[in-house]
Design brief:
This protein is an alpha/beta fold. It is built from 15 helices and 38 strands. The strands form 9 sheets. The chain has a 9-stranded parallel sheet. Strands 2-1-12-9-8-5 form a 6-stranded mixed sheet. It has a 6-stranded antiparallel sheet with strand order 29-30-31-36-33-34. α5 packs across α10 and α7 runs antiparallel to α8. The radius of gyration is 24 Å and the shape is globular. The chain binds alpha-D-glucopyranose.
Length: 632
């Protein structure tokens, strides 16, 4: 049972597609307070747990911290943070009573989940127009299924998008890409995609290709495809402000960019320098931007990643002028400690400043709205520009598309990656913890930058992280410019990497069919053990193991210098040790077990009465034999 309550005149975010009768807010059964903002609150029982909020910090049980829905360019994901790249406003309260809550509101929301007062949840929306949904069900899974039915079926990418993928900010010339391809092939390392970061463009201008580097880009795309490699270019939200660049000119002439309070184009700085921000919330502007992807699909490209679409702002023209003013003001003064701090802040607070998010406006097809009130749908609507175009022109499941920023609703047309992270062990564990939460919100095609984006990765960290990535639908190794090389061939002997990556291809028939079934049946691919074993007090609290599909459980090693780990089995299972072509199987009873896990091994736990299929290893999905499978 799902109930919808409307307050004021909310923006249509497109999150919910099912027709649900709207009730007045006066009938909302939880405490509700509306003045300049909306606050809802409810008591928390001693043992209540709270699941959800998709891509954000901290644990699977969200109780005990204050989170914010506010799409943020936030690399460090440390515990003091409150939000990451996505804004996913769905939680399930799990206690004596179970209840789902979805807040369809695109501005900032604070979720104080037992932080200020341990026995109360207090949720504050920074506005007065929203749709609130309450979902009942017998179990967490039933509530999630009910919610997922309301928000529509999840995106399914092409099969090849389940292959292993390599990315690096810095691959710039055809030979950089050929080297990645050949080094994988020569070392028996499978690979399906290589990513093109901003370096492929002409001066970071969207939908351009650097002609000096790629004189015949279409031929290069074909060359890679003939070796079963898909090239996946990045598209950034900001369009370089340059009157000699046709995309900018068209956007400018048609008034497709966001404007400041006086109606002038809002200017800010991102990778290309000063940019205009396309107004993706405007239908005409969105369609215009979507059609630009054709420039690259015409050259054979069939996959994209949309970036910087929170939107991330390095600075605004106004903010930069203020900071420069401050610098020159202080230039010939004596600088005391307070002047120093104010000087420092004026520079450090330039990026992603709340003042800037309050300084530009959208034209929602005739309704002028300040960005801060709709911030959380900007990235989702950029990705909708692309996914609508792909669906209309190529049909479903033909083009790979995923985004950094997201809002519920975008799960129908695209996947997500978990944005920038670091080569930290804690980020490997956070990667695991985010999987069920984003699945609850419909995002099934997802994954983190394996090995970590920034910072320097080690051989051990990469092997352990890949052994988790083997299970995530998006399995991409990505790193930042100037970081230590972390391609699977960068650490000397490649045989351990070949063993782990072979497991991915052996598992693709299982992972792909599980993924499809979860998309069709509005199911989660990864679930907390608490969802499947609610009566098991140990399983209920475990946050470093997950259920996968209906058959399996995963428990990766996520700490440095560990040769194994403790694993809890909530029921008897077979431990499959997968490594290259080798599989060993051991029956284990319910309870705790210490499991040795070699660096070239992937442990997988299969329920005693179930079996899963394994294919023979392959170097790409195109070469994968999905017919002749062995059951284990
Ligand atoms: C952003 C993206 C990252 C990309 C970089 C350069 O930080 O999140 O993946 O490599 O920009 O384009």
């Amino acid at each position: 049972m799902i109930r919808k309550f409307r307050i004021g005149d909310p923006v249509n975010t497109g999150a919910v597609v099912e027709e649900i009768k709207t009730e007045s807010a006066a009938r909302f059964p939880l405490a509700l307070d509306i003045d300049e903002k909306i606050t809802l609150s409810f008591p928390l029982g001693e043992n209540d747990m709270i699941f959800g909020l998709g891509e954000t910090v901290r644990g699977i049980n969200k109780r005990g911290w204050v989170y914010e829905s506010w799409c943020s360019d936030e690399i460090s994901h440390t515990e003091d943070k409150r939000s990451l790249y996505g804004a996913h406003n769905f939680i399930v309260l799990s206690g004596a009573e179970k209840l789902g809550l979805f807040i369809d509101y695109p501005g900032k929301i604070e979720w104080d989940l037992g932080y200020t007062s341990p026995d109360e949840a207090r949720i504050t929306l920074r506005g007065t127009d929203a749709d609130l949904y309450l979902i009942n069900g017998e179990s967490e899974r039933e509530i999630v299924r009910r919610f997922r039915r309301a928000i529509g079926k999840s995106y399914i990418p092409p099969l090849w998008a389940f292959g292993y993928q390599q990315s690096c900010w810095g691959y710039a010339k055809p030979d950089d890409f050929r080297k990645v391809r050949d080094s994988h092939r020569e070392n028996n390392l499978p690979l399906d995609c290589i990513y093109m970061d901003i370096d492929y463009m002409d001066g970071f201008r969207d939908f351009t290709v650097n002609e000096e580097s790629f004189p015949d880009f279409g031929a290069f795309v074909d060359e890679m495809k003939s070796r079963n490699i898909h090239l996946i270019p990045i598209i950034d939200a900001g369009v370089k402000n340059d009157s000699d660049y046709s995309v900018y000119r068209e956007g400018h002439e048609n008034g497709f960019f966001c404007t400041d309070k006086d109606g002038r184009e809002f200017r800010c700085g991102v990778w290309p320098g000063v940019v205009g921000l396309p107004d993706f919330l405007n239908t005409k502007a969105r369609r215009w931007f979507g059609e630009k992807y054709k420039i690259l699909t015409d050259m054979g490209i069939d996959g994209f990643w949309n970036d910087m679409n929170e939107p991330a702002l390095f600075y605004s023209e106004q903010g930069l002028n203020n900071a420069l003013g401050k610098l020159s003001e202080l230039a010939d003064k004596e600088i005391g400690v307070w002047e120093f701090f104010s000087l420092k802040d004026s520079v450090l607070r330039l990026a992603n400043s709340p003042d800037d998010y309050a300084a530009f406006y959208h034209d929602l097809d005739g309704r002028r709205v300040c960005h801060k009130d709709v911030h959380n749908i900007y990235g989702a609507f950029m990705t909708r520009a692309a996914s609508d175009f792909f669906e209309e022109n190529f049909g479903r499941e033909k083009v790979l598309i995923f985004s950094r920023a997201s809002y519920i609703g975008a799960h129908r047309g695209s996947g997500i990656w978990f944005g920038d992270n670091l080569s930290w062990w804690s980020h490997l564990l956070l990667n695991l913890k985010m999987l069920p939460s984003v699945n609850m919100c419909g995002f099934l095609y997802c994954g983190a930058d394996l090995g970590g984006f920034a910072g320097n990765c080690t051989r051990e960290l990469l092997l352990r992280w890949l052994a988790l990535g083997v299970f995530t639908p998006l399995m991409r190794n990505h790193r930042a410019l100037g970081t230590r090389a972390q391609e699977a061939y960068s650490f000397g002997d490649t045989s351990d990497f070949a063993d782990v990556l072979a497991v991915r291809y052996r598992l693709i028939p299982y992972i792909y069919s599980t993924f499809r079934r979860c998309a069709d049946e509005d199911e989660m691919m990864f679930r907390p053990l608490a969802f499947d074993y609610p009566g098991d007090s140990v399983a209920r609290e475990l946050e470093d193991q997950l259920m996968l599909g209906e058959e399996c459980m995963i428990a990766p090693v996520y700490e440095q210098n560990r040769t194994g780990r403790n694993v809890y089995l909530p029921e008897p299972m077979k431990l499959l040790r997968l490594s290259g072509v080798s599989v060993s199987s051991e029956e284990l009873g319910k309870g705790w077990h210490y499991i040795d896990v070699a660096l070239n091994e992937v442990p997988l736990f299969v329920k005693a009465d179930k079996k899963i299929p394994l294919a023979a290893p392959a170097l790409s999905t195109a070469e994968l034999d999905r017919e002749n499978l062995e059951m284990y």
